[in-house]
């Protein structure tokens, strides 16, 4: 007997309404029926932008669980996410940011049934960063879709930013998940069944967001537990600064190639397993 579809848990910031609409459609197509969304807006987000997003999600048939404003401290997302998980109650929880589109090797119900059968209480994913064919951080047209606007997928997060590309994409309700949904202490996902997390972060406007993040964490306006998030943003800004404002898609380290939300990348199980099992936190040096 197949399990109840997981509740989707997400803390959503000031993204563009078409992205949120595409995100909801994607997860409904995967079989998600219940969305628990909380909005959080930094103080500089105009009221009209907040109202547009709140109206857009209601037009999609989803009532936001809550809306908050203020600094986006490093712990803010985790606290809001865990409150949503408590509200969701027993069962499986699907964890996804608004720019993350998960892709599974089998129907979602089968993935969960397999995890239950094998005794795994979490399912893992690996980020695949999606960028424009030019490497530019461009906007996109809803009628064309994200695949058309950002056809290339590669490993930018860990090979340039030195960030953790691993994700906990599904977790039982009583499994605690770390900040950023990267780990669940005491629980190891099945490394042979890693889903693809298409990461559509590298869109128009992201550079300004990263500059604000660096400035506010550096000044202490936003609280941080480690400099990791700020350092990752700085590495991306430095990279595009060296390459004329674009991501260098020809760098072989990133392994950019054409991918699609319609089918898993070629040889993904072996590729994902290799990265998932060997990734280690970046060793900072005095030169960083």
Any chance you could write out the topology, listing elements then pairs?
Blueprint: E1 7-12, H1 17-30, E2 34-41, H2 47-59, E3 66-69, H3 76-88, E4 92-95, E5 100-103, H4 108-118, E6 122-131, H5 146-149, E7 152-154, H6 156-159, E8 166-172, E9 195-199, H7 206-219, H8 228-242, E10 257-258, H9 268-278
Parallel strand pairs: 1-2, 1-4, 2-3, 6-9
Antiparallel strand pairs: 4-8, 5-9, 6-7, 6-8, 7-10
Q: What keyword list fits this structure?
A:
single chain, 288 residues, alpha/beta, ten-stranded mixed sheet, globular
Description of the molecule:
This protein has 288 residues and is an alpha/beta fold. It has one domain (7-278). Helices cover 34% and strands 18% of the residues. The chain contains nine helices and ten strands. Strands 1, 2, 3, 4, 5, 6, 7, 8, 9 and 10 form a ten-stranded mixed β-sheet that branches. β1 (7-12), α1 and β2 form a beta-alpha-beta unit. It is globular and about 50 Å long. The model has no long low-confidence stretch (mean pLDDT 93).
- Gross morphology is globular
Low-confidence stretches: none
Count of all domains:
1
> What fraction of the residues are assigned to beta strands by DSSP?
15-25%
Organism: Streptomyces dangxiongensis
Protein name: Glycosyl transferase family 2
């Amino acid at each position: 007997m197949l399990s109840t579809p997981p509740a989707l848990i997400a803390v959503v910031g000031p993204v563009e309404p078409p992205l949120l609409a595409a995100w909801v459609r994607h997860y409904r197509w995967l079989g998600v029926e219940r969305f628990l969304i909380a909005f959080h807006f930094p103080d500089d987000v105009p009221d009209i932008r907040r109202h547009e997003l709140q109206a857009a999600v209601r037009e999609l048939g989803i009532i936001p669980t809550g809306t908050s404003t203020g600094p986006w401290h490093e712990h803010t997302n985790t606290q809001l996410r865990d409150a949503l998980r408590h509200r969701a109650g027993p069962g499986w929880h699907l964890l996804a940011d608004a720019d993350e589109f998960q892709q599974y090797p089998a129907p979602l119900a089968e993935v969960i049934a397999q995890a239950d059968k094998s005794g795994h209480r979490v399912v893992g994913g690996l980020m695949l960063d999606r960028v424009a064919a030019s490497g530019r951080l461009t906007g996109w047209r809803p009628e064309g879709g994200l695949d058309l606007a950002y056809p290339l997928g590669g490993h930018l997060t860990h090979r340039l930013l030195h960030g953790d590309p691993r994700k906990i994409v599904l977790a039982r309700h009583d499994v605690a998940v770390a900040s950023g949904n990267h780990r669940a202490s005491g629980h190891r996902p099945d490394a042979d069944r890693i889903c693809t997390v298409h990461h559509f972060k590298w869109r128009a406007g992201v550079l300004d967001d990263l500059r604000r993040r660096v400035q506010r964490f550096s000044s202490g306006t936003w609280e941080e537990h480690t400099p990791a998030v700020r350092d990752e943003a700085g590495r991306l800004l430095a990279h595009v600064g060296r390459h004329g404002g674009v991501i260098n898609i020809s760098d072989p380290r990133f392994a950019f190639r054409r991918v699609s939300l319609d089918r898993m990348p070629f040889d993904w199980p072996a590729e994902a397993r290799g990265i998932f099992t060997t990734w280690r936190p970046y060793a900072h040096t005095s030169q960083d």
